[in-house]
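S1.2 Input.
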Amino acid sequence: DICARLRRIVRASGAGRVMKRWWAAIANSWNGIVACARSEAAFREEIVALILAIPAAMLLASDPWKRALLLAPIVLLLVIELLNTAIEKLCDRITGEFDPAIGRVKDMGSAAIGVTLLATAAVWAFAVVDYVRM
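S1.3 Output.
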């Protein structure tokens, strides 16, 4: 029976453990996204920006790869916001008191967000100008 053979192969290869790890990783990732969305207004605003950007990218760009290039900086912004939030939460957990070194670390995370926002705005500005000139 082919099904029985496949089950034996999957068990022998450890694929079941791999799938369990993948599902656990997916669940952990989802929990992180939900926690960030609940605690960070900026993350919620960036999700709204992504939702609005999808139809805007369809309008501004005719090629699928151009649409992907328009959406990529917004996705990158979400990733950096998740990392910045993780850094801030960890810093707050380490000490509740003001620490100049921790303040600089938080400022660097904020700077990463700012640079990504500027890059995202530039990409979209170029796309809008290109669309208007057509």
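S1.4 Remarks. The CA atoms of residues 37 and 45 lie 9 Å apart.
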